[in-house]
């Protein structure tokens, strides 16, 4: 039986991965400090409450459980907050991650899947964005992830730690069984906010800018279903079982949707005509972010199942209906 340590496993993407990998028959141990709460998101796996920066706790976890590989989701995730508080972002996303990597090295654990992001690319020089695109992060959050990606190359050379960095574009949607879904506190992501406006948990949605150089003037993003991300992590674990090298893959559907298109889709699926306001641009938003994920399809055999925005919004709506009951 293969045992995987999932850090940040109580979070949005981590919790969906716990469920997915349990269904694939893996043994899972979750480590999460619950700084962003939601212990109840961990389904069918033991939860150790603690910080990935706690070396003594990591020694205990690695000694108690025979860990074969680590999926590291634990980090701070808000672009805007990272600009206000770069210190806490570098301390957590880089410093604490280093403590985890060193514990893995001490305990001979040589396989890591790392949650990276489209934010490492900064403003796109061309689109869709492939893995060769220049890395020019424009905020501390994206920079913290790019620093880790680079130091993983040093750790591979020096300590033989193999990693797969998965650069998610816009994670969205919910568990098709509606047992899990997106919960951030505070919520800053477009799709859950739009659906909260539809359910009445919010009074309105504000569109951040209508003067972008896109067809309808609003930003375009590549929304990728959280269950398809879980499939990619499973495939990345299998990749590490059969390869003696590290790799990095961009994960998106390759189709971009504008904010107005997301709102129209939400109205169509929910049947609710919620209020929409049009505000100024949000700092640091690139106009278009769309992934080229051919490499992940070729090398991992990744085959996303829920590519249509309709599926993503439908699953997210089923989850929102449970939350707002
Ligand atoms: N949500 C997205 O669209 C998106 C896109 C690209 C990349 N990512 C990356 O995916 C990962 C998961 O994102 P998410 O949306 O699920 O975020 P989330 O906030 O829901 O989950 C992160 C979890 O990590 C925990 N955590 C944070 N720091 C910790 C620490 N030092 N020790 C232990 N636990 C800690 C939090 O309590 C939380 O449960 C993050 O690394 C994020 O950067 C997310
Ligand atoms: O109330 C809102 C919230 C968002 N937006 C806009 O919707 C788009 C998408 O925003 P959001 O859902 O916050 O996602 P991003 O800012 O694109 O960032 C997400 O996707 C990135 C990868 O593309 C990851 O790096 C980040 O961690 C993740 O938060 C952006 O143009 C936002 O300005 C609005 O107009 N109104």
TrEMBL record:
Enzyme class at the top of the EC tree: isomerase
Cofactor(s) listed in the protein's UniProt record: NAD(+)
E.C. code: 5.1.3.2
CDD domains referenced in this protein's UniProt entry, alphabetically: UDP_G4E_1_SDR_e
Catalytic activity: UDP-alpha-D-glucose = UDP-alpha-D-galactose
GO BP terms in the entry: galactose catabolic process via UDP-galactose, Leloir pathway
This protein's pathway: Carbohydrate metabolism; galactose metabolism
Domain of life of the source: Bacteria
Name of the molecule in the record: UDP-glucose 4-epimerase
Species, as recorded: Noviherbaspirillum autotrophicum
